Amino acid sequence: MRPDLHDDFPRLDPLAARYGLSAAQLRALGAYGRMLAFDERAPTTVRSPQAVLRDHLADALVGLEVEELARARLVADLGSGPGVPGLPLAIALPAATFILVEGNSRKCSFMREAVALVGAANVEVVNARAEAWVDGLGRMDAVTARALAPLDVVAEYAAPLLRLGGALVAWRGQRDVLDEADGARAAEILGLEVLPPRSVSPYPEALHRHLHVMVKREPTPARFPRREGVARKRPLGRPPA
Question: What is the pLDDT of residues 203-235, one digit of tens each?
Fold first, then answer.
């Protein structure tokens, strides 16, 4: 951490105005943003303060525009990495409980420090792969995932964790027709309804940003989750070669 640069971080007023955040929430977001930018241990390649604001904080908070996520009370963020989008969303939604699920222990250690730094009492960090996290099965109001895997794989990770009526919200960039088709085929198997992708603009310069939402309408078949690694090796949305 570089204490001399702690105040060298962009103002967060636009986020406050857009999402109705309090001064305390802005302080927490700023502290987390500075940790991402200036702590050498932060597991991210996004290091400039302005880029952290845009690509981590603003990009995470755009999920508040999805009603299924904004009203959720128990949320799992899969493959949370440095804590995005889960921790910024948890700061913005203090009445909800967020569980940051990450298979890399070093990243989990960083997230626990970040959670302690910002005083986020509504956040838990779990060191586990999504497929192996049995404590979450059938409980989640929402599951979030950013830059984790193709849509069909993300859908398979999320579906067993969601309660009926719960929603997966997946952060994506430019739309990919083939990826979406694979995701839709997997969703049908998993009991998920695919909603139309939502074009979002987390900051003025953002291009081709979309949130993909799938709502659990039917019970997920009992054979899921499959063993660790199988979802990536044999994705549901793509027939065997």
Answer: 988 889 999 999 999 999 999 999 999 999 999
* Burial group, residue 221, by CB count within 10 angstroms (0-12, 13-18, 19+): exposed
**Which tokens go with 5?**
């640069």
Task: Give the span between the Cα atoms of 87 and 25, in whole angstroms.
Answer: 12
Q: Residue 5's pLDDT is what?
A: 40
- Cis status, amide bond into 225, omega within 30 of 0: yes
Q: Report the alpha-carbon distance of residue 82 to residue 117 in Å, rounded.
A: 14
Parallel, antiparallel, or unpaired: how do β-strands 162-172 and 123-127 relate? Answer: unpaired
CB–CB of 109/103 below 8 Å? no
CATH code given to domain 66-225: 3.40.50.150
Q: Helix 105-118 vs helix 23-38: angle between axes, to the nearest 10 degrees?
A: 140
On whether the pTM is more than 0.90, the answer is: yes
Provide, for the chain, the percentages of residues in helix, strand and coil under a 3-state DSSP scheme, each rounded to the nearest 5. Answer: 45, 20, 35
pLDDT at 241: 60
Alpha-carbon dihedral of residues 150, 136, 140, 200, nearest 10 degrees?
-30
Q: What value, to the nearest 5°, has the Cα angle with vertex 135 and ends 69 and 41?
A: 70
Residue 76 is inside which H or E element, if any?
A: strand 74-78
What span, in angstroms and rounded, lies between the C-alpha atoms of 87 and 89? 5
The single-letter DSSP state of residue 27 is H
- The ranges of the chain with pLDDT < 70 are 1-7, 240-241
Looking at residue 59, its pLDDT comes to 97
Within 10 A of 54 (CB to CB), how many other CB atoms are there? 18
